[in-house]
Design a protein that fits this description.
By secondary structure, the chain is of the alpha/beta class. It contains 27 helices and 23 strands. The strands form five sheets. A seven-stranded parallel β-sheet has the order 19-20-18-21-22-17-23. Strands 11-10-12-15-9-16 form a six-stranded parallel β-sheet. It has a five-stranded mixed β-sheet with strand order 4-8-7-6-5. Strand 7 and strand 8 form a beta hairpin. The radius of gyration is 32 Å and the shape is globular. The N terminus is likely disordered.
Length: 830
C-alpha cells in the first residue's frame, strides 16, 4: 500500500494525476478521465493518514475494493451524487469533517482543506459517526464551499453489511499538518511554504523561462515581497498584489504571480523539490519526445537535424519511423475514451503506430498499485498475424518512455489455445485430417440433385463458409444462419442451400469430435466461452491490430478478457466495456481472409469514438496510385456497417496524400517462375552493391501467394548467398539493418509489415490467386477475384520506396487494369 500526496494537473479538458509515495519517494502516474476542475479552489487530491490505512485493513477484501473505488470516484468529481459527500460539523472555519458513501453501509471520514483532503477513517456507518464524534476539531481549517445539494440519492443498490464492533480499528494517528499563523481567520494560499522556499521556486522558474526565451517572466521578488505573498489568502490576493506591484506596467507581473499562487497552493515544497531532482535525468528524453510531437514527419525534422543526420535517419531500418507521431495521431493516442474506440485508415496511415503509442500511454498513466497494494492489470496487445507479434513487441520497447512489463504481446490463436489449455480442453488441429473428415461428411450429405450439388461450389468455398461464417460468427442454430447477412460473401445462398450447409456443418463437426479434432475457429469459440465465465477481467485494456482479419468470436474473446463484471439480479454478471477498455485498429480494405462481421454484432459500440487517419506516411504517391488503379474498384464491407457507416467503401478511397512522389513501380515480365526468382536474387544483389550504406538485407521483402512459391524463393535466394528469413518459420526480431536477412513469405504474413523494397512473385494471368480446379460457378470466381484484389493491394502497399511486380509471360487482369502506372521490364528467355 502506498501513502503520500496525490495531485492533479489539468491540460485543456484532460487531467493527469501524480501520486508522490512518501515511503519510496517515487512519483507515480495515475490515469484519470477528462474532468473539469471542481467547485473548490483546485482539482481534488487526497492524502492517506496512517490511521486510515489501519481502518481499511480491518475491512473485508470486498469492502476494501469498495472504499478504493469510492476514493477514485472522489478524485474524478467529489460531488458525484453516489458519493453523498456531506459535512458533519464545522460551522466556523475550524474542524470541517466530512463523510462520503462507499456503499450502502460503508462510509469514509475525511477532513477537507480546500481541494485537498485527508482521509481519516473508513468503516461501517455507525463506527464512522462514532469516530467523528471522538476527533477533536483542528484549529483554523479553511472554509470550503458546499454544493447546492449534496445528498442526491445514489443509484447503487448494495445489500447492507452488519456492523461488527470487533472490526473497529486502532486509534487514529493524525497527520502532521503545518500550523496556521496566529490570529488568521482564513488559511493563506501558501500555508505550507516559507519565504525562502518561495523565493527559491521563483528563481528557478524565472531562470527556466529565460532559457526558453518565454515572455512569462516577472521582476525579482525580494524577501519582503515574498513574505507578503506567503500570507496572501483567497480574499485579499488581488489587493495585496496590486499594493506590491502597482500600475498598469506591472499588470503582466501581477497576472503571473497570481498564477504562481494558484499553482503552489496545490503542492508542497517537497513536491517541488522531488520534481527538480528528476528534471535533469529526464531532460534529454523530454526534448526528444517534444521534437517527435512537434516536428512529425521527416521534412519537418530538418529543423532539428543536419544533412548527415537526415541521411542516416532515411537509411535506418523502417521500424525507426514508427517513433514519430503526427498531431492528428497523437490526439487519438492521448485521448480518454468513454468506451471502446476504433482507429481506421488505409495502408500507411499509421494505425499500428497509433496502437503502439496508445499502449505506451495507457501503461504510463495507469496506477502502479491501488490503495490496498494490488498490482494493476496488464495491457493486452494482440493481432491475427503470428509473425507480426515479435515485431510489435520490439517496436514498443523502442518507444521513448515505454513500460516493458505492462504490455503483453500475443497473437489471437495463441491466446485462444492458452484459454482452452487452462480449461483442460485443448484438442488436436490437423489440416489433412480435417479435410479428410470434410470429404467424408460431404459424401454423406451432398448427393446428386441436392441444392448444394446443383450450386457447384468448391470444397474450399464450403469449408470457408462453415469455418469463417458459421463458426467464426458464433452461430449455434439453423434459424440464426438462415437470418444473417453473409458479409463478404458474394455467392447467394438461398434458404434451401443454407439448410444443407447446416447439415454438412453438423455432420463434419460430429466426425471431428469423434476423432478429437477441431478447427481454429472452434477453438476460438470455446475460448470465448471460457473467458466469459471468468469471475474477473484479466486485462485493464486490450489493443487489437489488424482487427479486420479476426473472426467475430475472436473479438468477443478479447472483449471478455477486459470487460467489467456487473452483478445482476439474475445471478450471472453482465459484461460491460468501460472507459479506455478496447482500441480496435485495422483497415477492411486489407482483409485477406473470406467472410466478415460487424462490431455491433460482437457487442462493441464505437459510435462517437471512431477515428479515420487520412495521410499516407509509408508509400510514395506513385506506389499508392498504382495499387488503387489495380485493386481500388472493389467494394469492401466495413466493420461499422450497422453503426451508420457505408457498408461498401472502396479501396479507391485510400489516402493519396503522401510525403514523396517516388518512382513508378516496375512490372517485370519473365518466361517462367524460375526466371522470376533468379531475377529477384540478381536485382537484390545489384541494389545492395549500388547502395551499401542505405539498403540492408532486412529492407527487402519478397512475397508470393502460396507457401510452395515462398519455399522456392527462399531456396533460390539462399543459393545466391543472400541471407533470408522465412516468415513462416522465423520470429522477426528488431529488424537489425546488418543481419536481419531478406524477409520472404506469403501475403497473409506480410500484413502489418513494411519494407523499403518489395518484390511480388507470380502475379500472372490465371495464377493469382490460386483457385481450385474445376470451379464453374461465376459467383465463386467473383469472390475469389475480390479476395485476390485485397491481397494484391496489401502486397503492393508494403513497399515504401520501390515496388517490383513479377509475372510469367502475361500479368494478371488486375495488373492490366493499372498498367499505365507501371514501368515495364521484359526479361528475355535464357
Amino acid at each position: 500500500m502506498s501513502f503520500g500526496i496525490t495531485a492533479c494537473m489539468h491540460a485543456g479538458p484532460h487531467a493527469v494525476r501524480y501520486h508522490l509515495d512518501l515511503e519510496s519517494a517515487r512519483l507515480i502516474h495515475i490515469a484519470s478521465p477528462a474532468v473539469a476542475p471542481t467547485a473548490d479552489t483546485g482539482s481534488p487530491s487526497v492524502r492517506y493518514s496512517p490511521g486510515f490505512r489501519d481502518s481499511v485493513l480491518c475491512l473485508t477484501k470486498d469492502e476494501q475494493h469498495r472504499v478504493n473505488h469510492a476514493v477514485m470516484r472522489y478524485l474524478e468529481d467529489p460531488w458525484l451524487p453516489g458519493l453523498r459527500l456531506k459535512k458533519l460539523r464545522g460551522k466556523s472555519p475550524a474542524g470541517q469533517l466530512w463523510s462520503m458513501r462507499a456503499s450502502e453501509e460503508l462510509r469514509i471520514l475525511l477532513r477537507r482543506n480546500g481541494s485537498a483532503a485527508d482521509l481519516v477513517h473508513a468503516g461501517h456507518h455507525d463506527a464512522v459517526l462514532l469516530k467523528a464524534a471522538l476527533i477533536e476539531p483542528m484549529e483554523a481549517a479553511p472554509r470550503v464551499p458546499e454544493p447546492e445539494d449534496s445528498t442526491v440519492a445514489s443509484d447503487q443498490d448494495v445489500k447492507p453489511v452488519p456492523t461488527k464492533h470487533h472490526d473497529r480499528p486502532p486509534a487514529l494517528q493524525e497527520p502532521d499538518l503545518p500550523a496556521i499563523p496566529p490570529g488568521a481567520t482564513q488559511q493563506p494560499l501558501l500555508w505550507m511554504w516559507s519565504v525562502d522556499n518561495l523565493r527559491g521556486y521563483l528563481d528557478v522558474r524565472r531562470g527556466a523561462s529565460a532559457a526558453r526565451n518565454q515572455d512569462d517572466q516577472f521582476p525579482p521578488v525580494s524577501a519582503a515581497q515574498a513574505a507578503v505573498l506567503v500570507g496572501v489568502t483567497e480574499d485579499d490576493a488581488e489587493d495585496k498584489l496590486l499594493d506590491g506591484w502597482p500600475g498598469d506596467a506591472n499588470a503582466p507581473a501581477r497576472a503571473q504571480l497570481l498564477d504562481v499562487l494558484v499553482d503552489l497552493s496545490e503542492m508542497t515544497p517537497e513536491d517541488w523539490r522531488e520534481a527538480q531532482l528528476t528534471a535533469d535525468e529526464t531532460a534529454a528524453v523530454e526534448r526528444f519526445a517534444r521534437d517527435i510531437t512537434e516536428k512529425g514527419a521527416a521534412a519537418a525534422l530538418s529543423v532539428e537535424l543536419d544533412a548527415e543526420e537526415l541521411r542516416q535517419l532515411a537509411s535506418a531500418p523502417i521500424e525507426d519511423w514508427m517513433l514519430f507521431l503526427h498531431p492528428d495521431q497523437r490526439e487519438i493516442v492521448e485521448r480518454s475514451f468513454a468506451g471502446p474506440a476504433r482507429v481506421s485508415g488505409s495502408a500507411g496511415t499509421g494505425k499500428t503506430t497509433v496502437a503502439l503509442h496508445r499502449a505506451a500511454w495507457i501503461a504510463r498513466h495507469r496506477p502502479e498499485a491501488d490503495m490496498f497494494g494490488s498490482e494493476p492489470l496488464p495491457i493486452l496487445f494482440t493481432t491475427y498475424v503470428k509473425s507480426l507479434v515479435p515485431v510489435l513487441e520490439t517496436l514498443y520497447e523502442r518507444l521513448p518512455g515505454s513500460t516493458r512489463d505492462a504490455v503483453r504481446f500475443t497473437n489471437i490463436d495463441l491466446l485462444a489455445a492458452q484459454m482452452c489449455e487452462e480449461a483442460g480442453d485443448l484438442r488436436d488441429w490437423n489440416r489433412v485430417q480435417n479435410e479428410n473428415t470434410f470429404r467424408l461428411a460431404k459424401r454423406e450429405i451432398v448427393r446428386p440433385g441436392t441444392p448444394l450439388h446443383e450450386l457447384g461450389c468448391s470444397d474450399g468455398y464450403l469449408q470457408e463458409e462453415i469455418r469463417r461464417v458459421i463458426i467464426g460468427r458464433g452461430i449455434d442454430d439453423l434459424d440464426s444462419y438462415l437470418g444473417i447477412d453473409r458479409i463478404g460473401r458474394e455467392m447467394p445462398f438461398r434458404p434451401a442451400v443454407r439448410e444443407q450447409v447446416w447439415e454438412l456443418r453438423v455432420a463434419w463437426r460430429d466426425l471431428m469430435d469423434a476423432k478429437g479434432l477441431e478447427h481454429f475457429e472452434d477453438r476460438m469459440r470455446r475460448a470465448r466461452d471460457y473467458a466469459r465465465a471468468l469471475p474477473e477481467p484479466r486485462y485493464c485494456t486490450v489493443i487489437v491490430d489488424e482487427a479486420q482479419d479476426l473472426t467475430q468470436t475472436g473479438l468477443e474473446l478479447i472483449c471478455a478478457l477486459v470487460a467489467r463484471r456487473i452483478p445482476t439480479t439474475q445471478g450471472l454478471p453482465r459484461h460491460e466495456l468501460g472507459a479506455d477498455s478496447v482500441l480496435i485498429a485495422g483497415d477492411v480494405a486489407q482483409r485477406v481472409y473470406p467472410g466478415g462481421y460487424t462490431l455491433l454484432a460482437a457487442g462493441v459500440d464505437v459510435r462517437g469514438r471512431s477515428h479515420n487517419l487520412g495521410r499516407n506516411y509509408r508509400n510514395t504517391r506513385k506506389i499508392i496510385e498504382a495499387a488503387i488503379a489495380c485493386a481500388g474498384s472493389f467494394a469492401v464491407a466495413d466493420l461499422e456497417a450497422e453503426q451508420g457507416r457505408d457498408l461498401s467503401p472502396r479501396r479507391s478511397d485510400a489516402a493519396r496524400e503522401t510525403e514523396t512522389d517516388g518512382v513508378p513501380p516496375r512490372l517485370v515480365i519473365t518466361a517462367d517462375k524460375s526466371a522470376e526468382r533468379r531475377w529477384v536474387a540478381a536485382e537484390i544483389a545489384r541494389l545492395r552493391e549500388a547502395n551499401p550504406e542505405d539498403l540492408a538485407l532486412s529492407d527487402f521483402g519478397v512475397f508470393a501467394a502460396r507457401n510452395e512459391d515462398v519455399d522456392a524463393a527462399v531456396s533460390v535466394l539462399s543459393g545466391s548467398r543472400l541471407l533470408t528469413q522465412n516468415l513462416k518459420d522465423s520470429a522477426l526480431g528488431n529488424g537489425d539493418a546488418k543481419d536481419g536477412g531478406v524477409k520472404v513469405g506469403t501475403l497473409d504474413r506480410a500484413k502489418g509489415l513494411e519494407f523499403k523494397v518489395v518484390f511480388l512473385l507470380g502475379v500472372s494471368h490465371g495464377a493469382w490467386p490460386f483457385t481450385a480446379k474445376g470451379v464453374s460457378s461465376p459467383a465463386e470466381r467473383a469472390d475469389a477475384e475480390a479476395l485476390a484484389a485485397s491481397k494484391l493491394f496489401v502486397g503492393m502497399t508494403r513497399a515504401r520506396d520501390a515496388l517490383y511486380v513479377l509475372c510469367s509471360e502475361k500479368p494478371h487482369s488486375l495488373i492490366d487494369a493499372g498498367r499505365d502506372h507501371f514501368e515495364t521490364i521484359r526479361i528475355p528467355a535464357a
